[in-house]
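Please fill in the sequence for the structure shown.

STRUCTURE ENCODING:
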């Protein structure tokens, strides 16, 4: 079954390279521009274009750094699943015996409390397992999975927050790109998240309070991770990963 998933993944990529709407790249940039109306500084920004296809993403990104968790070949730069757009990173867990795999993005600087905006484009093919985005403390080793918030993109095409079924919300498409935006407000006394799904076929938003026990971790915010863990198998793609912090 898992071998069929990988084969299906490759054929899905070829099919959607020819069918994708040409407006994706411009539409994505326009949508992300709506998220940046305030004065901000960029703490992480991906750029996979200089890296050869089928190689792991470079450690040094446009802003910040990237680390790979998992076996060689499980997190690699790939041709875009939609055009026109730049290269993407694919995160793979080909079978149940494989270790978890993920891409960790590390901020260029630690800033502590404040208002942060994370955004990224995801492409999750049909038949693949749960993709996860999580939010981590600064300078966390790539092999450590501590987080103060994580989002699971579930088999029923909804999003679950922190493994709580009662938080399920929204809807996202398979086999086409969509945008995830998370606004984090982190102070000395509380932390909250506003999560928004947008793009063709994606909709929904949720407000969520970070549990108080994890507030000390949230106040150390300094990394994000896109990964696939137990017991899920398959692959998903991600690009245009950006984290900013308000400065006004």
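FILLED IN BY: designer on duty
SEQUENCE:
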């Amino acid at each position: 079954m898992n071998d069929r998933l990988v084969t299906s993944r490759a054929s899905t990529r070829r099919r959607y390279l020819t069918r994708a709407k040409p407006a994706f790249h411009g539409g994505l940039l326009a949508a992300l521009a709506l998220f940046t109306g305030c004065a901000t500084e960029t703490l992480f920004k991906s750029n996979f274009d200089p890296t050869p296809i089928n190689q792991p993403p470079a450690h040094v990104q446009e802003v910040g750094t990237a680390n790979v968790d998992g076996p060689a070949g499980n997190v690699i730069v790939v041709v875009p699943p939609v055009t026109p757009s730049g290269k993407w990173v694919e995160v793979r867990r080909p079978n149940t015996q494989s270790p978890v795999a993920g891409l960790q993005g590390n901020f260029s600087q630690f800033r502590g409390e404040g208002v942060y905006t994370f955004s990224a484009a995801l492409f999750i093919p049909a038949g693949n397992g749960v993709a996860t985005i999580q939010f981590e403390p600064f300078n966390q080793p790539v092999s450590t999975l501590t987080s103060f918030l994580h989002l699971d993109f579930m088999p029923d095409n909804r999003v679950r927050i922190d493994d709580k079924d009662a938080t399920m919300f929204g809807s996202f498409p398979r086999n086409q790109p969509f945008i995830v935006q998370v606004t984090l407000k982190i102070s000395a006394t509380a932390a909250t998240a506003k999560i928004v799904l947008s793009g063709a076929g994606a909709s929904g938003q949720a407000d969520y309070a970070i549990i108080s026990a994890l507030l000390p971790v949230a106040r150390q915010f300094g990394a994000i991770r896109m990964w696939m863990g137990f017991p899920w198998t398959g692959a998903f793609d991600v690009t245009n990963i950006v984290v900013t912090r308000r400065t006004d």
